Amino acid sequence: MSEAFLEYLSVERGLSANTIEAYKRDLSQYSKWLKGDILKANSTLIGEYVARLREKKCGPSTISRKLSVIRTFYKFLYIEGKIDHNPLEEISFP
């Protein structure tokens, strides 16, 4: 995860240090699931990730929070010109 994203969360979004740490944990878990290639995501892979979270007995609010974090990350990447679309725009939240 880039320092630029962490700075964006702090400066632009005004998030607290604890919230930023939670974002880091959620994104790290997601990145690990993708085997580190976070830029390869698409709606199919994200749907598979949600299914995996459900298998792990994550509740709807936890899944929604994790998807919100991931969506914010992809929105940042889109704004920065690193990706051509946000794959979570195609996903409805639980």
Automatic annotation (TrEMBL):
Record keyword DNA-binding present: yes
Residue intervals of the Core-binding (CB) domain: 1-78
Gene3D superfamilies: 1.10.150.130
GO biological process, any: DNA integration
Membrane-spanning ranges: none
Pfam family, one: Phage_int_SAM_1
Keywords (A to Z) from UniProt: DNA-binding
GO molecular function terms noted in the UniProt entry: DNA binding
SUPFAM superfamilies, A to Z: lambda integrase-like, N-terminal domain
PROSITE patterns, A to Z: CB (PS51900)
UniProt cross-references to InterPro entries, sorted A to Z: CB, Integrase_recombinase_N, Integrase_SAM-like_N
Name under which the protein is recorded: Core-binding (CB) domain-containing protein
